[in-house]
Amino acid sequence: MDKYIEMIRIRFLMMLAYRTNYYTGILIYSINIGAYYFLWSAIYGEKDAIEGMSVIQMSTYVAVAWMARAFYFNNIDREMAAEIKEGKVAVELIRPYNYLGMKTMQGLGEGIFRLFFFSVPGMVIVSFIFPLQFSADWTTWIFFAVSIILSFFINTQINLLTGITTFFLFNNTGLIRAKRVVIDLFSGLLIPISFFPLWAQDVLKFLPFQGISYVPSMIFTNSFSNNEAIQAIIMQGIWVLILIIPIQVLWIIAKKQLIIQGG
Amino acid sequence: MNDAITVRNLKKEFKAYSSRSGLKGAFRDLLTRNYKIVPAVNNISFQVKQGEMVGYIGENGAGKSTTIKMLTGILTPTTGEVIVNGMNPHKDREKFVSTIGVVFGQRSQLWWDIAVQESFRLLKKVYKVSDEQYDSHMAHVIRTLDIEPLLDKPVRKLSLGQRMRCELAAALIHNPPLLFLDEPTIGLDVLVKLKIREFLKEINEKYNTTILLTTHDLSDIEALCERVVMLDEGKIIYDGALKSLKEKWGEGKEIEFQFLEDVTLNDLNRITASSEVKWEKDEKEAIFTAFAEDNDELISLLIAKVVADLKVKDINIKETSTEEIIRNIYDRGIS
Fold it and tell me: Among A259, A86, A169, which Cα is nearest to B12's?
């Protein structure tokens, strides 16, 4: 376990080594939150509530969804693709650790870094500019914490899956991009799932994506009752377990037919 | 059984895809693709004892790296058996790799953006090395490789030679009984090469570390290895002592003479008529070269005869270099 914790620390150091990325990140996220805030205020107009959500809940939803994204989002699929393409995966395989586990830890290191140096200060700044609503109920915060950790795992697992496909496709830049758009849309980052047409909501219930953004954001804005929140968190947990299966299967096949590119 | 490596009938085949020509061909490639099965490593067997230093040589594409990758558990063999350190490398990968060290000359295993010591620290945790072990062993490694001043620099700021020394140290953090070096001296200057060679010799003596080395620089092999395994087109074409390789394929000795007086080839042939010697003349510099069998008595006799009759300015005895021998073998095959 020691080595995995050490990896989180190393990733932390690597994030610090690239400070410019960090500053531009803050800028991009603020622009996104601002744009969606004004878009939604325009849509709401004079109305008090749409689909049971008030304007304030909506702006809180937008802000928290983006700030949560900073935590669960990572580029390990792209990193894996690069490592496989350049043959660096050979070096990873001569180390006594689980490659996928190590990648997850790198993602976590990145996530924790952004949570403390990005999401939390970002949220404070955003709350000065836009009217947001924070829950005073500590159960909401606990639900939110559990839920966001699970959304990290679901998102990371989907990234691992996309990354492993590089072993078979050799060039999957397109797939990685498509995955990103699909997640942004179907996870409820851009539009809450409850705004989708009913049939689409039914379909999305059977997909893991809403566990990534919709669930933690709804919990944070108190749009879920306690019961709904618990159910949603259980669903997230089930998805984390289900996703282990395709990852392991693909990983075993990938290792068997692995070709190290470039000598 | 104290063999570090046992390889029996090892084979690795790759599918080599070929593209059809033209636009029509490109569309057909979308559906079905042509491929050939190419053996990269074809039925090789060898053994390496604990504490041996073995040079693994061959032309580009002969299958050296593929073998190393199978021995380190990265690639799965198509058929055949590999036992390294008493384990099957790809089956017990995680347990197995903590008993080996690997240096790939062309790939870095240090983390690019962070200081060298942070990489070391992570590797120390990864290999579960205790503090005492680390301090006693690594202090020595760091001193010998002279990398103390580099430890707090990020890897991307190191020169190739500096980085290579750090790579070597990183591969030795857990003091493995078996070390694989895949072209460790590629692109390095003479001083760094010497330092690395000396260091390898030292750890081999001190810890009885087995070392398997692939390189295109034969002086590395000459300096380090008593045994060489030579590979060509996926097959082993020679496995034995470096010395007997020289004796077997070395093409005698060359003795170069320069004379103070005018000499013709006829004179020389007359003088040495009794022994089996072939003379050649380099017109430009008036150097006469005698080709003789590698036999000490014959050569001393030859020199004595020449010196007795003619005034000599310079004599130079040359042995066929390993490089030439190996070039000959590659060119002509082993037959």
Answer: A259
B291 forms beta bridges with B254, B278
User: What's the token pair of residue B208?
Assistant: 């009885």
Cα A136 to Cα A213, A215, A220, B174: the distances in Å are: 21, 19, 11, 52
Q: Does B85 touch chain A (CB under 8 A)?
A: no
Rounded to an integer, what distance in angstroms lies between the CA atom of residue B121 and that of residue B145? 18
User: Does A28 touch chain B if contact means CB atoms closer than 8 Å?
Assistant: no
Query: Is B292 within 8 Å of B305 (Cβ atoms)?
Result: no
**Given this model, what pLDDT does residue A103 score?**
92
Condensed to tens digits (0 to 9), the pLDDT of residues B143-154 reads 888 899 999 999
CATH top class, domain B252-319: alpha beta
**Do B254 and B229 contact (CB within 8 A), yes or no?**
no
Q: What are the backbone angles phi and psi of residue B206, rounded to the nearest 5°?
A: -75, -45
Residues of A in contact with B183 (CB under 8 A): none
CA A103 to CA A160: how far, in whole Å?
8
Search chain B and give the residue with CA nearest A88. B107
Q: Which two tokens stand for residue B211?
A: 């070392």
B-chain residues near A96 (CB < 8 A): 94-95, 97-98, 126-127
| Listed residue (B329, B306, B305) closest to B246, CA to CA | B329
Mean pLDDT, residues B43-72: 89
Q: How far apart are CA B221 and CA B246, in angstroms?
A: 13
Buried b (16+ CB within 10 A) or exposed e, B260-295: eeebeeebbeebbeeeebebeeeeeeeebebebeee
Domain ranges, ordered by start, for chain B:
3-247, 252-319
Fold annotation for B3-247: Rossmann fold (3.40.50)
Q: Could you give the CA distance from residue A170 to residue B238 in angstroms, rounded to a whole number?
A: 36
Residue A164 has which token pair? 């492993």
Structure ipTM: 0.79
pTM of the predicted structure, to 2 decimals: 0.81
CA angle A233, A234, A238 (to 5 degrees): 120
